Amino acid sequence: LTSCSKFEGDQTVPAFIRVDSIGLKITSIDQGSKSAYISDAWIFVDDELIGAFELPCLVPVLYQGNHSVTVKPGIRLNGLINLRSAFPLFTSITQNLRLIPDSVTVVKGSVINGKVTPMVQYAETTTIEVTEAFEDAFYVFDTTTNSQLDMSLTPSGTPFTFEGDHSGMVTLSDTLTYFEMYTDEKYTLPRQSTPVFLEMDYMTSIPITIGVYSYSSSEIIQHPVLVLTDMPKWQKVYVNLTPIVSSQTSATSFRIFIGANRLESDPAGTVYLDNIKLIHQ
């Protein structure tokens, strides 16, 4: 992450702004799980960018006195450590803080797991088209005709469940080597580089492909967007669908698909999924 310090007058001793972590507050049941992975803090003082910093962070700034400090939550686009962005579908945190040279000022929040954690929410301009927590057998996904097997649920109480009673799971074997599901409805999604994301929690021992089907009056096209490699522990990913959706100017609607393909050289493996959300501005 890159950053820059802001000098104010002749001040040479910095004040420090500390951000331990940032959490997600859910404001209605329709928004689904509060699970989030906010990896970075984009820090502004009086609307001027100081820099983007991996959490937790202690940021030197050459300001003193009362100032407006804004923290924008940052994510790893497509799960890539070198591709980071402030997340436009969450709100920001703005607090009036007193900055004192050679002293630490903490961005205020609740103490969660020993860390001071200010909270963000989904922005009022954010639309949540899909939320799937796999708590019952009625999914918002259908298995495609290409798939050799269906999604199932983890047994209640198993350690493989991310949260709640169940997560989604599918196991590929020597004879069942391909799985694919897509949303049971088509969605009209915004273009012109308007942010469109798929967020989900996953754990897998085989690669997962995520993408969209685009539908126009003359054709249906499958567009793979991201391949997630094996991940032995639960991980949140924010898949950036904005470029592919905006590029399909003739499409009238879209479905989201998630697939897994076991190659002959691969051992049998299982994909676990939870808290899938299709969100956009």
Summarize the amount of helix as a percent range.
under 10%
Q: What is the CATH architecture descriptor of the largest domain?
A: Sandwich
Calculate Rg over CA atoms.
Answer: 21 Å
Largest sheet report: 6 strands, antiparallel
Indicate the CATH topology of the largest domain: Jelly Rolls
Number of separate structural domains: 2
Please give the oligomerization state of what you see.
single chain
Total number of strands:
23
Average pLDDT figure = 95
Strand content: over 45%
Describe the structure.
By secondary structure, the protein is an all-beta fold. A hairpin with a 2-residue loop joins strand 10 and strand 11. It is 2% helix and 49% strand. The chain has 2 domains: 110 residues, Immunoglobulin-like, CATH 2.60.40; 153 residues, Sandwich (Jelly Rolls). The strands form 6 sheets. Strands 13, 15, 16, 18, 21 and 23 form a 6-stranded antiparallel β-sheet that branches. Strands 3, 4, 6, 7 and 8 form a 5-stranded antiparallel β-sheet that branches. It has a 5-stranded antiparallel β-sheet with strand order 14-17-22-19-20, with no helix packed on it. It is built from 1 helix and 23 strands.
